[in-house]
Amino acid sequence: MSFVIAIDGPAAAGKGTISRAVAQKFGLAHLDTGLLYRAVGKRVLAGDEAITAARSLRPEDLKGDDLRRSEVAQAASRVAAIPQVRAALVDFQREFAQRTGGAVLDGRDIGTVICPDADVKLFVTASAEARAARRHAEDVLARPDLTFDEVLADVKARDDRDMNRADAPLRAAGDAVTIDTTQLDVAEAIATAVQAINARRGSV
Ligand code: DC
User: Fold this and answer.
1) What pTM does this model have?
2) 132-186 per-position pLDDT tens digit
């Protein structure tokens, strides 16, 4: 039987960490769907046209540390507002979700658009300040001049674009369990997610 977990939420709320942990715990495959949009954003920064890039993505485009850069994240958020870019990425995500044994997908529209029938939907969120503080602590190691305010402005700009686009905006599905990680450490956030998944698994 295939078991699908959809995890959505804004940037740096902890959904990547939670997704990897629950995928490992429950023995499921994991797809970070943000990587697809980051790969398209990176190709656009290199001069490609967004829709053409989305239609011709290759597995090797999803690899590389530079996909984590903040310019690439902002470019990802911009290309993600183009309906034809989103449409070009739907089949790959749905096929991944159908793999035998089940899957965890994390992103912005997994519970609402990509997998509306997912067995469990989580919406992982946190205050913009808490998310910016986490992102700043990670990124300042590589860029010592980076200020908290710059990161906060980036986080808010991305939230605004992701929540207010017309096509598949970031929002919690009606049947999602919301986990606010503002006051939680990593272990507590993972434990809360596992508890919510176990509660649903018992009733599937
Ligand atoms: O999860 P992330 O930060 O890697 O995502 C980068 C951008 O990609 C995000 O700002 C919006 C877009 N995205 C999306 O629109 N839909 C998804 N399912 C995943 C990401």
Assistant:
1) 0.95
2) 999 999 999 989 999 999 999 999 999 999 999 999 999 999 999 999 999 999 9
Whether 76 is in the pocket of ligand 1, judged by its Cβ within 6 Å, is: yes
At 180 the three-state DSSP class reads: strand
Among protein residues, the one with the nearest Cα to ligand 1's atom 1 is 34
Q: Judging by beta carbons within 10 Å of its beta carbon (0-12, 13-18, 19+), is residue 88 exposed, middle or buried?
A: buried
Ligand 1 neighbourhood includes 93 CB (under 6 angstroms): no
The residue whose CA is least distant from atom 12 of ligand 1 is 77
Q: In this structure, which residue's CA is closest to atom 20 in ligand 1?
A: 34
Distance separating alpha carbons of residues 103 and 26, to the nearest angstrom: 9
- Fold classification of 4-198 is Rossmann fold (3.40.50)
Helix (H, G, I), strand (E, B) or coil at 193: helix
